[in-house]
Specification:
Helix content is 41%, strand content 0%. The protein is mainly alpha-helical.
Length: 86
């Protein structure tokens, strides 16, 4: 419930300060780790315990995937290199 409303993959406005801190940390990490080390940050999406079945999200699996994609896109918009996100 911190980043998303129940049943939604749209980031809540109050989630962005937390994600901005994460983006800043990842960008700093990019500069500190030697370039020959191929590191990545894995972004997982999760849902609550309530099953979902909507046209947009036929199951919790689709919702959790969409949430992860929302976070990845946001981090990329903040300057995190896409090759560092999976």
């Amino acid at each position: 419930d911190v980043l998303f409303d129940s049943g939604s993959a749209e980031l809540k406005p109050e989630a962005t300060p937390q994600l901005d801190k994460l983006a800043d940390a990842l960008k700093q990490l990019e500069n500190q780790i030697p370039s020959d080390i191929a590191w990545v940050m894995r972004i997982d999406g999760h849902t609550d315990i309530h099953p979902i079945a909507t046209p947009e999200f036929p199951s919790n699996w689709e919702l959790s995937s969409a949430r992860a994609i929302s976070v990845v896109r946001y981090l990329m918009q903040q300057g995190v290199p896409p090759n560092r996100l999976v």
